[in-house]
Each structure stands twice: as C-alpha cells, then as structure tokens.
Amino acid sequence: MIRIEVSRRRQHSQFFAIASPFIALAITIVVGAIMFALLGKPPLAALYAYFIEPVTELWSVHELLVKAAPLILIAVGLSVCYLSNNWNIGAEGQFVMGAVAGSILPVLFPQITGPLVLPAMLVMGMIGGAAFATIPALLKARFNTNEILSSLMLVYVAQLFLDWLVRGPWRNPEGFNFPETRTFHADAILPEIWSASGRAHYGFLFALIAAAVIWFVLSKTIHGFEIRVLGESPRAGRFAGFSARRMIFAAFLLSGALAGLAGISEVSGAIGRLTPSISPGYGFTAIIVAFLGRLNPIGIVIAGLFLALSYLGGEAAQISLGISDKVAAVFQGLLLFAVLASDTLIRYKIAIVRTGALTNGGAR
Amino acid sequence: MSPDMAQAILLTIATAATPLLIAALGELVVERSGVLNLGVEGMMIMGAVTGFAVAQLTGSPWLGVLAAVIVGALFSLLFGVLALSLAANQVATGLSLTLLGLGVSGMIGENFIGLPGVKLEAISIPVLSDLPFVGKVLFNQDPVFYLSLLLAVGIWWFIFRSRAGLTLRAVGDNHASAHALGINVLKVRYLAVMFGGACAGLAGAHLSLVYTPQWTEDMTAGRGWIALALVVFASWLPFRVIIGAYLFGAVTIAQFHAQALGIAIPSQFLSALPYLATIIVLVLISANRRMTMRNTPASLGKPFVPDR
Amino acid sequence: MTVSASHAQDQGKGLPLLEVSGFSKSFGPLKANDGVDLVIRRGEIHALLGENGAGKSTFVKMLFGSLQPDAGSMHFDGKAVRPSSPSEARKLGLGMVFQHFSLFDSLTVAENIALSLDGSFALSDIAAEASRLGAAYGLHLNPEALVGDLSVGERQRVEIVRCLLQKPSLIILDEPTSVLTPQEAERLFETLETLKSEGKSILYISHRLDEVRRMCDKATILRHGRVVGACDPRRETAASLAAMMVGAEVAGVRRTPSPADSEQPVVFSVEGLSQAPLGPFSMPLRDIRMSLRAGEVLGIAGVAGNGQSELFEALSGEQTQGNADIITIRGKPAGHLGPNGRRKLGAAFAPEERIGHAAVSTLSLSENVLLARHASDASAYLSGGVFGIVRTGALGRALARIVSAMDVRKSGADPDASTLSGGNLQKLILGREFDRQPTVFVVNQPTWGVDAGAAARIRQTLVDATAAGAAALVISQDLDELFEISDRIAVMHDGEMSAPLDAATVTREHLGLLMGGAEPEKHHGVAAS
C-alpha cells in the first residue's frame, strides 16, 4: 500500500509560495503531452501550437490581450472575494448583466452620441454587474444563503435574460431576424490601443489599472488586511472590529463591478453589439486565473495572459493539427487541479510512504 | 385537465426528478461524512457522456449505465486525492472538478453529437402497472426510476439504522473525535466521495439514456448544482430529498406544459424558473438559521489532517 | 516504593500490568518523548505529572495507538504489544477518557457509546447496559439525550461509561478534573476508588498536585519529554512535586492585597446584561451585573460552558447590546459600541482561544499586533487617511517592544503566529494590550494550557498593571489562579453570575457549590463592597 501523508508546516514555505504555479504548469504540460500522445497527435507540435505559436506574430499578441483583458478584470475582483471567504462563482452572470446594462445607451438610444456616451456606458456596465452581484451578497448577509449556489444559479438567469433580450425586445429591426442587437455606433465603441497593429482595446488597460490598484490595497493598506483576516478567521476578524457582513457586500460589489466592466468592454471593444453568446466562459475561466495567480493581482495578470493563450492555442491547434478546440477547456480544468495540488505544498509537507509491507500492525 | 394529461404530466415530472434525486442522494452521503464536493455537475456530465458513448458503441444501454457509474466514481477520486489526501480547499477543488468534467465531456462527446441515442426502455411491472391512474406513473417506468426510490430508502436505512451509517455521521460531526476513537476518517470519506461520484454518474446516464436519449454539450444544464441545493433544502434527510427533487422536477417541466397550455410567457423566463426556484428555496431554508445550524454536519467542508 | 497491597484480593494484584521502556517520539526537531519508562501495577492508581508541553499527551497517545513511537517497547499483561490504532489498544484492555472529550454533539449518548464498541450491538442493548453501569458507579445518564445538550460534567460521565463498557483493565484519564467543580471531582474520586478496589489500574494524568497526593499510589514525573522522577506522591509535599515538574521553584505572584477602596473611581460597570442564546449549543446570559474600581481584580469562576465565552463576547463588543448604558467604560456608555469603540475608551480584551479568535495563525506576529490595535492606535500604525496605509516600521517597533517586555520566544524576525508555542503566543496576545496601558482588562482563561513559567509571568503582569491603577476582570476555570490574583471572586453558572465575594474570606467549598448551581445565599452572599 502506498499512502500520501501530509503534515502541517508551522511556518508557510516562501519557496513553494512562489514555485507552486510553476509546478502546476509543469504538471499540466506533462499531462497534456501524454493526452496528445494518446489522441495520436505529436505532443511537441501540439504544445508548440498551444503555447508558442499564438505569440509569434504581433496581431495575435493583440488577440491575446483582447482575451486576457476580461479574464484579468474578473479575476482581480474574484481574488478579493476568495481572500475574504466569499465564494462568488457567478462572475459569468455579472459579466453578462454588465454588458446588458452598458448596452442600454447604444441599443435603445442610438440617437444619443458624443464623447460622453462611452464613459457613461462603462459606468452603467459596472453598476449593472455590481447590482447583479448584490443579489447573492444580500441573500448571504441577510438570510445566510449559500452564495456559491445562489451566484451560480444567477448565471443561468442572466444568460437566459440576455437570450430573451436579443431575440425579443432588443433585436435589431434591420437584422434579418438574426438574434443580435443593432451594431454600436462609433461613439459607443471602446477604441483600440494601437490600431495600426491589431485589435487590442482599452479593456486591457483597465485590467492593468484594476490589478495595480487592488494589489496596492491588498498588500499595503488596512483594508487589505481586513480582507485577509476575515477570510482566514471570521471570529478573529470580529474581534478586530471588522464586519464580515460589510465585507460580503464590499467583495461582491467590487467583483461584480469589475466583471460588469469586463462585460461592457468586451461588447463595446471586441464585438460591437450584443449577441446571445458574448462570453466563451470568461467568468469561469477567471476562477482558474485567480487561483493560478495565487489570488495576487500581479500573479493574476500573468495567469490571465497565460490562460488567454490557451484560448488562442485551442484555435491554433485546431487549424494546424486538427485537435478539437474542446481540449482547451480540458487544459484549463487540469491546470486548476494542478495548482490546487501544488498549493498544498505551501502549508503542508507531503510524504509518500509505503505501509503494510513492513509493519505487522497494518492489518485492521 | 383530463386524467390522461395529468398522468402524462406526472410521468414527465418523475422522469425529470429522477436524475436530481439520485445525484442529490449521493451528495447527501458525501456531505454527511463532512465533505462538500461541488463537482456534482462535472461528475454528472461525465456520467452522461460515458453512458451515451458506451451505449452507442455497444448497443447496450445497460452497459452504458454501468460504465457511467464506474466513471463517475473514478472521476470523484480526483477530488478525493486533492481535497482529502492533500487537504486542498474543498470549494475550489469541487469547482475544478466541474470545470474539468465539462471540458473532458465536451472533448469525448464531440464524436457523438447528432447520433441517435439508445434509450433505456421502461420496465412494466405486471399487474401493478395496470392499476388505474397510478399504475403507469409508478409501475411502468425506466429501471433507474425504481432504483432511485430504492436508493432513497436504502440510504435512509444506512444512515440511521446501520452501524456503518453511525460511523459516517460521527465522521461528519467531529473528525478529530472520530480519529481519536480509531475511526479511519479518510477511508470513510473516500468511500463516501466515491459513492457520491457513482450516484452522479448514474444520474448523468439517466439524462442521456432516458430523459433525452442523445448527447448535447453541457446537457446537464446546472442540474448538478440544483442537486447540491436540494441537499441543503432537505436538511440532509433522505426522504426530504424526494420531496425536493419532485418539486424541482415539476418546475423543470412546467415550461413545456405551459407552452402546451398556450400561456404566453417568453420561453426564456420559463427556463429560468428552476434556477430562480432554487434560490428561493435556499433562502427559505437558510433563513431558519437555528434549524440549519443544527442539521448541518459540523465538520462540513473542513479538511482533516491528523497529527503525526 | 512498595505498593500498598493490604487490601489486595485478586491474585495478580501488585504485579506489573503495563511496562513501557524507552518510548521516544520526535516532531521535527522537537523531542516530545525521549526514552520514557513507566511501570503500572494491577490495582494501582498511577499519576503522570508534568507541565503543559512536557510530553504527557504524546506519551498517552502512543499507549493508546493514536501515535506510533519512534523507538521503545511496551508490555501489557506480560506480552509485548504495539497497538497501531485505538481499536487495537481497546482490544488489549486499555480504556481512555480524553481531556478534550472525543464526543459527537449531534449524536445521542447511546450512539456515542456504540461508536467505541467493536462488533455490532443493538442500540437498545447499549442503552440498557450504559444505564446499568452508570447506576453501579454513580454516573447517571439519559441514553437518548443529545450529547451537544449535556453539561461538561455529564459529558465526562459519558466518556467514563463508554470506557467502562469495554471492560478495560487499565483506564487512562487525561486531566479529568480540570473541567469539574470540586464537588463533581469528589464524586469522580469515589468512582475511581471503586474501580481500584475491583483490581483495575488507572493512569491519572494531572497537574493538580493536591489530587495526586491524595489519590495516587505512585507518580512518574515528565519534564521536556524525559522522566525526571518517580515517587510515592503521598510522601511528597506539593512544593517538592512542583519543583520536580518545573525543574525550579516557581515564584508565586507578588502582590500587596489592597482592601477594596471605595475612593477609587468605577472604571467598568455592567448593569443588567441579558442575551438570548446565539446558536444551538450556546448559553444565554441572564441579568449580569458588576462594577470594577481602578486597582482591583475581579475573578469569575465557573465550569466551562456556563456562559463565560458568551459573557466575554458581550463585554468585548463582539456582541453589542441594544441599550448603550448597560456597559460603561470610564463612565461613558459603551453597550452600543463594537470592540474598537470599547478599546478606544480604554478597554483591552484577551479571549480564551488564542488561534482563530485572539490571533490568526497564518498571519505574522506584527500583523497580529495590528489585529487588535489598528483602530485604537490608528495614528501610530496607519497613514494616508481613508487609504489606511499600514506603517510597517512603526508596527515592527511595537512588536520588538512587546517581545522584550513579555519575553516572547520566537524564531526569526517576524514569523507566522503558528510557529509560537501556546505560552509565547499568549504572552504576545496579552503583551499587545499591556503595551497600550489600558484602564480595563477583560481576559478569559489567561493561562489555560500555558507552561508554569509563562503563567507566572502573565499573572504578575496583570497584577502589576492593576497596582498601577488599571482594573482587571479575569475569567478562569482555575480556582488556584483566581485565589492568587483576585480581590473579589464571582461565579458563573447557567448564564447567571453570582454576587462577587471577598477572595480573602470565601472558601473553595462555597465557590464549588455556586459552580455546581447550588444557591447557598445567592445575591445576598458575603458581597464585598
């Protein structure tokens, strides 16, 4: 019999705190290579297609930033939630509702134009996401309702709501019955950062700013301290005079607002109109980004870029090697598993021991 | 409403409720051992794709069901190794099991999209199925339906009447005490987690072999999550899971019958009903804080690392 | 040295039942047990003495199969054995009554008992047998009751009956009286005498020397994981036993008892504090009243679970009161204030649980200082207004000050709180409050699980602070401690608090009766004014 024995470290390991995401990456790549081999594809070529090819050309680096922007924005907000022990897994829904709320102006009032339209849209997007996130927060604070389940259920509600809008009241009257809204006018489009070379829009800049601000708050201020204390031990947090209830709202509102900002940025920067499927699961992939970045905003920027790579890599591998684009989702799931497993090393020592063969007391 | 129509509605409710019931019963056992596995959705969809694929390839729906149960249990082992042996955060690990399950099932199922399914046929129980009205609903159903009810009774008996069930409750109540008494906490929890995985796999197979005998991506559509909510709704009591599952079964099929009855509500709103109902039910149950605190397994979600 | 065998009836009485030689166990660099030898004879009550952290628990866990020794051997009943699990140990004939009971709150008494019995029994048989045994030994129980609803004394009865049902020949009791009233302890001693007269052996683990001298035939003393002495405790004095345990004389607290001085201002008062239970197994508080003058120590005695932690949270502001006037600090109403509002008025708090309430194990020591002082000392440790930027330099200096004032032993400059021993962490938790020089201290179990040296230092610092004009409210289960430092002592029972009694005149017996819920002359007792 082989058994895994874990024992608590008294002092957390600085080394593994930094190394664990890399260990996770290594595990994922090895497992991925084995998986490609089993699928009958050349592992090295497949890995190249996934992780190298997308960054060999400038336009595709732009695409990378387009994909990374919502992931980072959402994940930064989620890091505050998870650090404070608020399990918001409904960011996908908040993303959608942010996109919907932000689109009210260009869809319903296309006659309103001017330089103020875009800022108003972004603010409305943030309000929409935050408002939607208030529902699970309120239910948790007021009724002690499990926020994991309520926030997740609201994802389906948001998606169905969007589906109804674009097929019903918001459908483009000149759109040949396609389920989509009218295309946003020029003042409602989030500009590209450097349009000469590719599509990357200001959403990525928002993501970097959000990451920098939250990093500062978390690591340098009493508010970050409050978040961590309440997450580690609610009772000690109460003793310190912090309010877990207020933190529920703060964490959900912040992450909802950032998810909403990601939603409206995606719609107004990358898509240009509302359609039934505006997200390839950014809200869920961002959960992986948050953990891979070890809930640290700087780590999250790197992790967000990396997971954006897996989206692009999925497309690249499908074109060059005929590998299903579903493999990207498998990769993402594997990565989260690996990062959770290697995070164990930070607080625990792990030993693999043989039992039963040597001791006679093994029989029970 | 004619008796025939009422009967048809009851039949569809039972079919919609069965996978919820099975998955929730499995998770109930898991949570009774003090483990929160949020990967039900992932294990369920793995069961659905496995069941469909094996039935399609072998032509035997029974083999499909068997394979789904085995795959569900094996898939839950991934969660077990991380959350039990490595003491990883159970919430995050369960989520990752769901994400991985959705990904892997999408990859496997790609080759089966659009293929005709193999339906697990109903078994008609002689004499009883001829009873007026209830005969068809209760005694002319698919085998998994019968199994789901047997499972509810069996799990009730196991938890409250058997010695092993007592051990399960003890581990869920206080793992440190259980360890001090010499109970192998991790072994109990591994077995519970695998049982939960097997149930979720079976529930998935019911979806792809009975409910809608075909494969579509993400076909579980949040049922695994609803099953998790049902366990809370039922206060960890098996018979209340039956009530909850049938209530949700009824809500789920309401959309089809509402359209048939000509009620002019957009279909998306009706589709959102089960999810909204889940939230409402959770609120109603959890607002009674005293009761939920008393029934919740006290060590739910807490990792156990024995002193060495 | 010889065991008194005068009333021996069994043939085997006086022969060794358990022989342990050279038990060793290390946790990393720490040698928890280092070559421990021990012999227990039949019909003997054998004391295992030692301070917290001396290695008693580790030794017992190895006996009982929950831990495996790194080296050493064990003979039971003449045979070499090495139990690899508690159930194996039970099969050999070892029974264990745990200090922190290994019971299950949500299960019934009968179910709790059934869990430790091997093989299958009908629950009804277990209930009947438990009632029979309980009656025989004076341990009355209701088998249908939920354990979560039982008092601490009743829980111990469940543990003992559960142990007796296995018909053990050696019973291990780990600190059995630490949670009992003196009267309950008396009843326990009678039960133990009965068991001894039946020829059973008992390993009695305690740090209460009076009990050991009274009850035990033999004592083995552990210090830093080693056996430092074996003796007949009846021939020793409490002082000589204590010296062996600690390795040096422990200084008692130096204080000049000050007769209650009505000239001093009232700095803390509670007027009619009542509170409903907060959860399924929580106690209510019923009309609590007290007032503390500057310079005095009020001790609150009581058996664990009679509302002490609820009282602490109500006083600290973790639970606020509807009416602000219920609690006043330095004359200002504070009932509506949270912990930080009360701290700002000059109060300081130290809860019972160090990890997870007073401190967070995964945070560094300086962050744990910030935990209690970010609001009361905001100008010192925060800058940037609403941004609240933490001034790590100032915080580091505060930590250094506290560490040197309280002699906190740590490894590294600013390690995680989890690296500190219980005593050192407690010194830090109290030190971060002393460092602010508050007017009122509210402390719950200040020396629980702390080694004698650290405990003495903590008590001395508390007494010194009151001598300098502060007031202290000390909630403790340790009557010796309360007698040592208090001016007045009140007793909590079932969520009610008795009127405070003069510590110089009240007897242990009187307090014991109050702790057990008897009402000798409640509310109009010998109240000191």
Distance between the ends of chain C: 51 Å
Gyration radius of chain C, to the nearest Å?
A: 25 Å
Q: Please give the largest β-sheet of chain B.
A: 2 strands, antiparallel
Low-confidence stretches of chain C: 1-11, 522-529
| Mean pLDDT across residues of chain B | 89
Structural class of chain B: mainly alpha
Q: What share of the residues of chain B lie within helices?
A: over 70%
- Biggest sheet: strand arrangement of chain B: 1-2
- Helix-strand topology string of chain B: HHHHEHEHHHHHHHH
Find the count of extended strands of chain C (DSSP E, 2+ residues): 23
Strand share of the residues of chain C? Answer: 15-25%
Unreliable spans of chain B: none
For the largest beta-sheet of chain C, the strand count, sense and barrel status come to: 7 strands, mixed
Which word captures the global form of chain C?
Answer: globular
Short description:
The complex is a heterotrimer of chains A (364), B (308) and C (529). With 364 residues, chain A is mainly alpha-helical.
Describe this structure in words.
The complex is a heterotrimer of chains A (364), B (308) and C (529). With 364 residues, chain A is mainly alpha-helical. Chain A is built from 14 helices and 2 strands; from the N terminus they run βααααααααααααααβ. In chain A, strands 1-2 form a two-stranded antiparallel sheet. Chain A is globular and about 70 Å long. Chain B is mainly alpha-helical. Helix content of chain B is 73%, strand content 1%. Chain B has 13 helices and 2 strands. In chain B, strands 1-2 form a two-stranded antiparallel sheet. In chain B, helix 6 packs antiparallel against helix 11. Chain B starts with a helix and ends in a 13-residue tail after the last helix. The mean pLDDT of chain B is 89. Chain C is α/β, with parallel strands linked by helices and 529 residues long. Helices cover 32% and strands 23% of the residues of chain C. Chain C is built from 17 helices and 23 strands. Chain C is globular, with a radius of gyration of 25 Å. At the A-B interface, strand 1, helix 7, helix 12 and helix 14 of A face helix 3, helix 4, helix 10 and helix 12 of B.
